[in-house]
Amino acid sequence: MAAHIDRRLIKSISAAGEDSQVEAILVVKEDGGMGVCFNEGFLQKLVEGAIERTGDLPIAIRYFPRANAIVISARTRLIQEILQDENLAVASAVDFDLMDIIFS
Fold it and tell me: What pTM does this model have?
């Protein structure tokens, strides 16, 4: 199953350019299936793999393992790499102040 990527996120990425910052909410499915993972380590591995492939670090990130979610602010290259992951279920643009959530 391919991930559902919100049109607002696609527009944000297109408008930002490769070296600009984009914020996204990412929801992942369990490795190899449609179940839930409830595992922060699994979420971290997904992001770390994208970091290794791009060489980019996130500007800010917060994991929500009980929701299988990641809220991330990063350069578009890193976001685009994460969007290619087969374990991604949903990706959406952020409509609120991300820094309030990450640092609260």
Answer: 0.81
Tokens of 101: 């959530």
**Distance between CA atoms of 84 and 71, rounded to whole angstroms?**
17
The pLDDT profile of the chain, 104 residues, written as one tens digit per residue, is 468 999 999 999 999 887 899 999 999 886 555 555 566 788 888 899 999 999 999 999 999 888 889 999 999 999 999 999 988 999 999 876 555 555 55
In the DSSP assignment, the letter for residue 102 is: H
Give the amino acid at 53: R
Residue 21 CB-density burial (10 A; 0-12 exposed, 13-18 middle, 19+ buried): middle
